[in-house]
Each structure stands twice: as C-alpha cells, then as structure tokens.
Amino acid sequence: MAYLELEGIAKQFGAQTVVDDFSLAVGKGEFISFLGPSGCGKTTTLQMIAGFLDPTRGAIRLEGKDLTAIHPAKRGLGIVFQSYALFPHMTAAENVAFGLEMRNVPRGERTERVRAALAMVGLAGYEDRHPRRMSGGQQQRVALARALVIKPSVLLLDEPLSNLDAKLREEMQIELRQIQRTIGTTTILVTHDQNEAMSLSDRIVVMSQGRIEQIGTPQETYEKPASAFVSQFLGKTNDFAATIDRTSAPARLIAGSWSAPAPAGLSGAVTVSIRPERIGFGDAGLTAKIVTRIFQGNHWLFQCDSECGPATVIRQNDGERQPAEGETVRLAWRPEDMSVRGEAAA
Amino acid sequence: MSTAAEERGVRAPWALTAPALMLFVGVLLIPLAMTVMLSFHDWGQYKGIEPVFILKNWYEIVTDPYYAEMFWRTFRIALLTTLLTAVLGAPEAYILNRMSGRWKSVFLLVVLGPLLISVVARTLGWALLFGGNNGLVNKLLMSAGVIRAPIPFMFTETGMVVALAHVMMPFMVLSVWAALQRLDPQIENAALSLGAGPVTIIRRIIMPQIMPGVLSGAIIVFSLSASAFATPAIIGGRRLKVAATLAYDEFLNTLNWPLGAAVATLLLAALVLIVVGSNALIERRYAEVFR
Ligand SMILES: Nc1ncnc2c1ncn2[C@@H]1O[C@H](COP(=O)(O)OP(=O)(O)OP(=O)(O)O)[C@@H](O)[C@H]1O
Ligand SMILES: [Mg+2]
Question: What is the model's pLDDT at position B4?
C-alpha cells in the first residue's frame, strides 16, 4: 500500500486553478521529485502536503489516515524551505533543538540528538554559531538537520539547493542522497533543475501548468517521454515529423529518407523524438548538412540542417575522425532509441 | 598621481560638503554654543542679562527640588509614553503586516493619521473629549451614570501620556514594521512545521526578531516625548510643567534667559546621554545576531 497518497488534489486561488487533478502514490522510503518550470504549482502542491494551504478538492492520506484533518503543527513533517527560514536569533544548535523542545524531549536526550543531527550533516563543532555567520551551504545543512532531527514521517524539500553555487550544489546533492539512503526517510523534493531531479530521485513527477505530465523513473522520463513537453524539458532532444505507412506490408515508419518497421498501434502523421547522443553518422538515413561543429572536450556537438528540420547530434570524442562543417552526412539511429508519439510535430 | 591632483582629491570632499556644513554650523552649532554660554550668564529683574561667567543658574537647578521634580516628571512621562507605544504599537504593526492589500493601506493611513494633523488641533481634540465637565466623553459617561465626577485628564500626567502616545504611535509602528519586513516570509511556517503553537511562535520566534525595531522605535519616541512642547503645553498648561514648557516660560514669560538656557542645556545633555547609552547597549546586545 502507498505510504503517502495524493488523490485528485486541486488548488484554486480565486478563479485561477494553480494545481489540478494531481494524483500520486509515494512508497515508504521513496525519493520523489516534483520537476517543472517556474510557476507550474510545485510549491503550492508541497504546501498543501505541509498543511500551509488547504486543497480546494481531493484527499491527502498518510498511511491511510486523512492528513488534511490534522493541524500543520501536528503533522510531524520535516520541511526545508528555499530561503532556509532559519531562526536568526538562535544558534545552530538552538535551531535544531527547537522541534525537539516543542515535543517535550528531555534536555539530556535533546542535546544528544542535536549533536548527532549536526554531525550527520557535517557541522560538528558549529553548535554555537548564529545562522548569519554561516555560509549558504552551512545554513542549508542546519535547515536539513532541523527538519530531520524530529524524525519526520515525510521530508519535504522546496528547492533547497537553488541558492548554492554549481559546485556546492553538486556536493550537497550527493550528500543529500546519502543521508536519505542511510535514514530511509520518504522524501519529496521540489526543483526546476532536471539534472538535480535525475541524479537524486527514485521517481520524477514532471509538471506543467498545474498538471502532471508524466510520473516515472529518471530513465523512463528521459528515454520514453510521455509528451512533447517532457521530452523538451528533460534535456536536449530532436523532434522529427514522420508518417506511418500502413498501405505497404509490412507497415513502415518513415522520416525523410530514414525508415524502420512501424511500431504497433499508431498510424498517419506522428512525431519521433531521439536524444542527440543516440544519433550516429552512417551510410544510410536522414540526409543532413552540418552547419556548426563545436568541440566540448569529452564530446562534439553538431548542429545540422536535415530534411526534417534542424537536428542536434552529440558524438563522444573517441578519437575517430568527425565530419567537418559543411559536409553532408546521413543521420541514423536504432528504432528502440526513439519514442514515437501520435501527434504531429509543432 | 601628481601632488596637485592629490591636493584636489583632499579638498574636493570639503568643497562639496561646504554648503551643507555651513548651514549646519550656522543654524545648529553656533546657536547651541550660544545657548550653553548663555546658561553661565547672570540675570536680574532690573539689570537684565549680564555677560559674566557664574554658576548661579546651575547651582539653582541642582539644589532646588522643584527642578529635580520637574525633570523626573519629564522623564517619567517620556518613559510611560514609550512603554505605552511599545505595548500597543508592536502588536499593531504585526496585525497590520498580516492584513491583505487594500485593508493594509487603509489602516496604515489610520496609523499615520496623527502625523498629518497639527499637534495643536489633535491635542485640543483630546481636550474636547475629556476636558472637565464639558468634555464630550465625560458628559456622556456622567449622564449615563457610569461615573459621577469627570475623568481627570487635563493637567494630569495620565492625560499627557495618553496624548503623547497618540502622537508618537506612528514612529513606533513604522519602526516595528520595518523590522517585520526583514523577517523571512516562511519563518512562521517553519516554526509551525516544527510543532509550535501560535503563542510560542510569537513569543519565541517573532518577538526576539522584532525587538531591535521596538528598541529603536523606543529611542525615537522617548527622545521626542522628553523634548515635546506643544502637547504638554496644552494638556499641562502652566500648572503641570515639563522641561520644555519650563524653558519656554523662563525665556518668554519670566524673561530669565540664562535660567531657561540652563534648563534646555541640561535636557539636551541628559537626552544625548540616555539615547547614546541605550543605543550602544542595544547594538552590543544584538550585534551577534543582526549584523
Ligand atoms: N497566494 C497566492 N495567490 C494567488 N496566486 C498564487 C498564490 N500562490 C501562488 N500563486 C500562483 O500559483 C502559481 C504556482 O505557484 P507556485 O509557487 O506553486 O509555483 P512553483 O512551481 O513553485 O514555481 P517556482 O519554481 O517559481 O517556485 C503561480 O502562477 C502563482 O502566481
Ligand atoms: Mg516554488
């Protein structure tokens, strides 16, 4: 049975529907990311779980119990805010201890747990520092320790890493994942960074304009995007207009001068999408002319002008000779590397 | 860099600030120095002011218990006014800050209202409500049988504190408001998610963070109340004097300028000491937390 269940959640502000028909079942110990562009309703959904906002429709259940009936102070969830929202007048240790104080944990046990929590996030020895005198990364760790020390049933993270610089963000991602694996807390992370979502989560919920576009593992959402939005949002992709010809036998999928046996089900005008790194240069396939060639260290990036419109190709720098700018090439890919959607390309 | 340019570099700031500096020296420092000097001059009913150096005025102020009482009253009234504005103004600012859009601007205008009305008109308003047997509120309450005698307001310290607090409220509210603006908008949610109730949130999270705002508001209100003239003059008249009204009387009624100057100088010195001292204390106390 699902641990945390959102069923048909919707939120309206006045006439504006910000989240609609949001259903999700989270397993115990799972790491879920809400991924989507700014303003798609990620924070709103998270705040409904936290209890700061009431859903207009729908139900939220934790271990089968209705969560919306419980006051936010009694839900026992751990939350890390985008701005951290640390208490500036308290030291790191006092910040972390606050939740335990509210739970009337005896002083001795409290000190011990605060010390353990700060040590877990790598801040042993920083007990008496005030937040204003800590770096962004350190503040972020205090916020994490403060949320985890109360042993929350679910950990909610609202873009906790977006205020950090790229290098620190990567370090914190690894650390966050390790901590989550170790203590096994069910976690929901809000982010608009697709790399972050992919490297951290068990499953990703891709959102757009308040609706779920796709729920799946990082590989699924990357390799089998359910919609044009998902394929565009998760990394670079090539969308080619294609047709499925069922008049010939066996039926074929045709994109320019590239063709393959047609998949079952669809027919007529379709869109195929292929990741740039899955396209190779071959003797047969889509005819294209290389417009620009950019060297990027471990790989080459090609912008091509193909029969089916612009195409991006990425080739590993494996020492082989690569085609030069202006050269005419044929683009080919394995049928299992593409995803086919029954919608005409935009 | 050449020496000429260097010289110009040194002179430029002086040249640029010269006009403001001259105004400052001309209208503030020189009169102030003259007032201090005046307080050491002699004065007699028939001889007028004599430019000599004597300590007569200062001796009189220090020894005559009348002045001690009057200064005590001045600072007592200022302190009570400060407490009243803090107790009412801090919650007022908090509530105001939580209001949404339109109501916020309406009530902000209500709070700032006293600043837009002349002190005299505003204080006379209080007098109309509570002034003796003819005061509107007194009349109403008496005819309703709630009270038998009119509530004493005019010529009382309570009246002065209430009227002063009314005037000073905007300074406190704005100062606390500024502190509230610096709060993280999610800070209450953070405390809530950790299990804190509304009272705990206000006591443990909000109050400590707006305290610097309350204290700086208190310094403003205290110094303005201790040196206020119009309100004490109307409510207290000649019967209940504070330092400012006493200095005024000495200058314009008794014509004993040197004594008036001594009172004014002492008030200024005491205020500067109190304000600078408490400011230093506050800064030391909160330096660790608020840069
Ligand atoms: N209190 C509110 N009243 C009215 N509209 C709101 C309110 N809060 C959020 N919205 C709207 O709801 C939409 C979604 O907001 P939300 O904060 O959930 O976005 P988000 O996905 O978290 O975006 P971001 O990545 O920028 O944080 C936005 O269009 C926003 O304008
Ligand atoms: Mg957000």
Answer: 67
- Name the minimum distance, in Å, from the CA of A37 to any CA of chain B: 22
Q: What is the pLDDT of residue A319?
A: 85
Q: Which residues of B24-49 are buried (b: 16+ CB within 10 A; e: fewer)?
A: eeeeeeeeeeebeebbbbebeeeeee
Q: Which residues have their alpha-adjacent CB atom under 5 A from ion ligand 2? A: A 43
Of the candidates B185, B196, B289, which has its C-beta nearest A73's C-beta?
B196
Pick among 2.40.50.140, 3.40.50.300, 3.20.20.70, 3.40.50.720: CATH of A4-232: 3.40.50.300
A264-293 pLDDT, tens per residue?
Answer: 777 788 888 889 999 999 888 889 999 999
CA dihedral for A40, A221, A214, A51, sign (positive or negative): negative
Size of interface A-B (CB pairs under 8 A): 67
B247 contacts: CB under 8 Å, gap ≥ 6: B260, B261, B263, B264, B267
In the numeric block, the tokens 């105004």 are attached to B23
Q: CB A81 to CB B290 under 8 A?
A: no
Domain definitions of chain B by residue range: 1-29, 67-286
Mean pLDDT of chain B: 89
**Which residues from chain A sit within 8 angstroms of residue B190, using beta carbons?**
79, 81, 85-87
Chain B: closest CA distance from residue A245 (Å)? 57
Please say if the pLDDT value at position B180 is more than 90.
yes
Q: Is a pLDDT exceeding 70 seen at residue A344?
A: no
Distance A38 CA to ligand 2 centre (A): 7
Q: Give the three-state DSSP class for B150.
A: coil
Chain B closest-CA separation from residue A143 CA (Å): 10
* From-to residues of CATH 2.40.50.140 in chain A: 236-341
Q: Which of B132, B164, B136 is nearest to B150 (CA)?
A: B132
Judge whether residue A79 has pLDDT over 90: yes
| Per-residue pLDDT at B53 | 87
Asked if pLDDT for residue B8 goes beyond 80, the answer is no
Cβ atoms B191, A98 nearer than 8 A: yes
Interface of A with B in 28-87 (CB under 8 A): 50, 52, 72-79, 81-87
Task: Name the CATH code of domain A236-341 (choices 2.60.120.10, 2.115.10.20, 1.10.260.40, 2.40.50.140).
Answer: 2.40.50.140
C-alpha dihedral, B197 to B203 to B209 to B212, nearest 10°: 160
Give the number of the atom of ligand 1 that is nearest the alpha carbon of residue A19: 14
Q: Does residue A274 contact residue A224 with C-beta atoms inside 8 Å?
A: no
**Strand order from edge to edge, sheet including A4-13:** A16-26, A4-13, A57-62, A65-66
- What mean pLDDT do residues A227-252 have? 85
Look up the pTM and report it. Answer: 0.82
Q: Poorest-confidence range of A332-336, B91-95, B189-193?
A: A332-336
- pLDDT-derived band of residue B1, with 50, 70 and 90 as boundaries? very low
Q: Find the residue in A nearest to B288 (Cα).
A: A130
A73/B193 CB distance under 8 A? yes
CATH number of B67-286: 1.10.3720.10
Check pLDDT > 60 for residue B291.
no
pLDDT at B51: 86
- Ligand 1: which of A11, A16, A18 to mutate, judged by most atoms within 8 Å of the beta carbon? A18
